[in-house]
């Protein structure tokens, strides 16, 4: 229905996995190298982040300003988008709008074809991964070369990224060396596996592409509505290469990546580098507005995508997921993500933010297991630079899933029946007291260890597969209270 | 209905379904710091500290010693050919005999030429002490973005008067619509086993001369 928020359509893009999270996690948990690399990587970044955040006495004030700026922006999104479009257009850029992934892919493909190019260079962009742009370009006979070192490793290895910021973290240096030897046509056959040597091989391989590229595709970390300015935050210099040298630049960006005014970047340019790579500032940030004669691409296109974002916006409890600035601090602090890695989530947005964003972009039923991929420890909320209350949204999505399931199934799930039974017992004092008394019979279990292990009953089985339950006490609290206070009036 | 109208309509429908909180732009709480108690010398010290931390090379000099310092830096680096952007102060190069390749709006260097030279010299619009960031805005003496990107060695002359304390102060001094490049050390990657490697694309050596 036109004009109404719609989720991201099936059949295009990379927001859905082939397995549920528990199924996928079972595989990834067995990958000892992934767990070791990931554990090491996340511990290192956590420490770096903590150090640079501790340097700023106004970190909490920055977080609150970031949160408020995002809340305000989402509340006035149509106005800011129109302002952005006008500002970009006034400076010689062309703005395109895409309702969903398929439309965005068509727009970009046609823009590339219009230049006559059959290859493009790409700066890492989650939005383009989300919509499956590379696959769409390939289907149209256009080769898309990733230029971020990690994305290059993933692309040459015919693999999928496992982390937002360090996508090839599941690969060790020996594997990367092998991938380069196999897939890089021009590589030195005596390549060693030292990181500096590997990075240099990538430099030489890509430099040729950069200096000859005619068309580049990028994402954007921020867009300033007031001035039409776009910003790309990076470390390696491939961003600068792609944003500066080609004749045509196409930038794909989600509609939520706006900030109202130029000065608002003062908040986000402090929050982002410290939260993501744990640096005071990342090596390179490029900012441009439309077209500048004689400097950089002379044709600039901005493709704004919805692809389910308006559906997220229509959820009063879940919409804060759109405030995300893609720093990945929540991934690095999550005990679940640290062990399972990104592939287990099935979507290009993994980890805590992925667990609340992916199901909302696709509709809860296509990512139903993700809100449960959490122990609700809340560490993500503590580190989020824009204070997204991820745990609360996770619980909200779990409730939504339960309700959706109930609406769509005539027979209640085992969990729903167990909850109904529990509600029946707990809603009446007499029933509850009797239940507690009979629970004492459970003391026959767990006598040896003092805790109850596996219980082969529906629902209880899944719970106790990974948890121990304490033995019921000899005397319930109510009985103890009654005995203690029997003389009270 | 165009995609543009459809998307905007969807947003407005979302707002009707879930009315967002009322928060005016002017009511946004900005209790973060936008000024510093450091005096100018302390700012310069902090800038140097951050630059060294990023593995940039740093020299400090005075105005009358600048040409000599530039010459020394270029000689130590072994530079023979140097890109010079339009508007760079000629006086800075009086101490050196390197071959200059001028880049101007009417006669820009090709990418191949930029790739073949040993280095580039620029100044910057503003430098941020807190983060060790140099910001180029393509005005006089800084060049279009490609000239500080392609050569492998970037020598940046930072005038002490352009050093500010923090990011908010820096942004306030910049014109948003100019092509801007914020540089905080030479390029780097940690993508291989989280092992930080300096120098991927972009100049692998950044040298800074702070002139007081």
In short:
The complex is a heterodimer of chains A (489) and B (212). Chain A has 489 residues and is α/β, with parallel strands linked by helices.
Descriptive report:
The complex is a heterodimer of chains A (489) and B (212). Chain A has 489 residues and is an alpha/beta fold. Chain A contains 22 helices and twelve strands. In chain A, the strands form three sheets. A six-stranded parallel beta sheet of chain A has the order 1-10-7-4-2-3, sandwiched between helices. Chain A has a four-stranded mixed beta sheet with strand order 8-5-6-9. In chain A, helix 3 packs across helix 12 (265-276), helix 9 (173-183) runs parallel beside helix 10 (195-212) and helix 16 (351-362) packs parallel to helix 18. The longest helix of chain A has 24 residues, at 32-55. In chain B, the strands form three sheets. In chain B, strands 1-12-7-4-2-3 form a six-stranded parallel beta sheet, with helices on both faces. Chain B has helices at 3-17, 40-53, 66-77, 111-116, 167-172; strands spanning 57-61, 81-85, 99-103, 119-123, 126-128, 133-136, 153-159, 163-164, 180-183, 188-189, 197-198, 205-211. The termini of chain B are far apart. In chain B, a hairpin with a 7-residue loop joins strand 10 and strand 11.
Task: Quickly list its features.
heterodimer; A: 489 residues; alpha/beta; six-stranded parallel beta sheet; four-stranded mixed beta sheet; B: 212 residues; 5 helices; 12 strands
Helix content of chain A: 40-55%
Determine the number of helices of chain B (DSSP H or I, runs of at least 4 residues): 5
Care to count the β-strands of chain B? 12
Give the C-alpha Rg of chain B. 21 Å
The N- to C-terminal Cα distance of chain B equals 60 Å
Largest sheet of chain B: 6 strands, parallel
Name the poorly predicted regions of chain A.
none
Mean pLDDT of chain B: 95
- Total count of helical runs of at least 4 residues of chain A: 22
Q: How much helix is in the residues of chain B?
A: 25-40%
Q: Count every beta strand of chain A, where a strand is a DSSP E run of 2 or more residues.
A: 12
**Largest interface, by Cβ-Cβ below 8 angstroms: which chains and how many residues each?**
A-B, 105 and 78 residues
- Overall body shape of chain B: globular
Contiguous uncertain segments of 5+ residues of chain B: none
Shape annotation of chain A: globular
Determine the structural class of chain A based on helices, strands and strand pairing.
alpha/beta
Strand order of the largest sheet of chain B: 1-12-7-4-2-3
Listing every helix as H and every strand as E from the N terminus to the C terminus, the arrangement of chain B reads HHEHEEHEEEEEHEEEE
| Separation, N- and C-terminal Cα atoms of chain A | 66 Å
**Helical/strand content category of chain B:** alpha/beta
